[in-house]
Amino acid sequence: MAVTKRTIGSTASSNSKTNENISTNSGWLEFSKHIMTGISYMIPILIMGGLIGAISQLIPYVFFNIDPSVSILEAINSGKYDGVSFTMLQLASIMEIFGFTLFGFAIPIFTAFTANSIGGKTALAAGFIGGYIATKPVAMLSLMDGKWVTKAPVASGFLGAILIAFIIGYFVKWLNKKIDLPHDWLAFKVTFLIPLISAFACLVLMVFIITPFGGWINTLIKDLLQAAGSAGQFAYAFVLAATTAFDLGGPVNKAAGFVALGFTTEKLLPITARCLAIVIPSFGLGLSTLIDRKLVGRSVYDKQFYQLGKTAIFLGFMGISEGSIPFALERPAFCIPLYVTGAILGALSAIAMGAIQWFPESAIWAWPLITGIFPYILGLIIGSTFIAVVNVLYRNKLIKDGKLVVNE
């Protein structure tokens, strides 16, 4: 009879480690859930503002062919336009101001709904207040030349918004548990008492802790980027493109998007590399289904992939990366490194040629907001063509070696 040797305490240790892993995972999942809730409410604000802002740019720079270096206001004051043209430019100016004003609501909406996700509706207002102060910090009194004047500190921005959203969300949740009032006083508790306490908490936290800390971090990042010069920006673009294209909407992609969104909202670093990396794999795989017969004289895909390729191109124009997933699922070990390499190549090419995108959207309707649209499109073509050609040649070699059979 076989005797199994048992080590005292090993089972308990194993269970302890398992519990720790479960606890860590559940903590990360909860953090991600609240963050993604806030982002999901923020994105429509960005889309609305971006779409109206994009239309405002189409009127002068596409319909009237005005030089992009001339602002809409300068065009209005130039005296060259009258009648319908003048009215259209006035409309474009109003739409430009309105559209980009909407961006100012993005961070307060994010903090409001992140706090709401944690602490319920009672935390919504305090979250909005905290987010607003994160973008427009309270001016502080300072003594200058013997007189007291007000001066606004550096904004804590997206970092401050995240901190206040979680702190105030859990604080309100704690208040709801600890403040126990009779049922008749429930309305007083949730509409007056807790909102008032949480608003004062926001005041203290934002003015004396989060704004100084977040402002210091933002200033430090700006100084580091200025010291690193263009090399620092290219390193950031390299990492951003690689992580965005790595898992096509998976956790690595989302984490990269979360960081990039913070930087672009703060106007610290553009989001050009991410926007390109989202669509380059889709365009590249779609293109490969169009050029394979011309490039190697044969079909290198099963017939169903040709329809998927057209779909991937359409989704690419819509700023959606999922069109390339079916191709990645077939041969992930080859496709994922190829996506990452093509995304890096295309993004760095576009940025090196002068493309700059601040608006976090890859769809075609956001292209008028890009500075340097031709370098942007050229970078897109470079990255996509690289993926298409390499993939076709690789699959053709597999077919020749007898390692891949295609059902045409």
Give the arrangement of secondary structure elements.
Elements: H1 10-63, H2 72-77, H3 83-102, H4 106-119, H5 124-135, E1 140-144, E2 147-151, H6 157-178, H7 186-246, H8 251-265, H9 272-296, H10 304-317, H11 325-330, H12 332-352, H13 373-400
Helix pairs in contact: 1-3, 1-4, 4-5, 4-6, 5-6, 5-7, 6-7, 7-8, 7-9, 7-12, 9-10, 9-12, 9-13, 12-13
Structure summarized in a few sentences:
With 408 residues, this protein is mainly α. The chain has helices spanning 10-63, 72-77, 83-102, 106-119, 124-135, 157-178, 186-246, 251-265, 272-296, 304-317, 325-330, 332-352, 373-400, and strands at residues 140-144, 147-151. It has a two-stranded antiparallel sheet with strand order 1-2.
What does this protein structure show overall?
The protein contains 13 helices and two strands. It is an all-alpha fold and 408 residues long. A two-stranded antiparallel ribbon has the order 1-2. Strand 1 (140-144) and strand 2 form a beta hairpin.
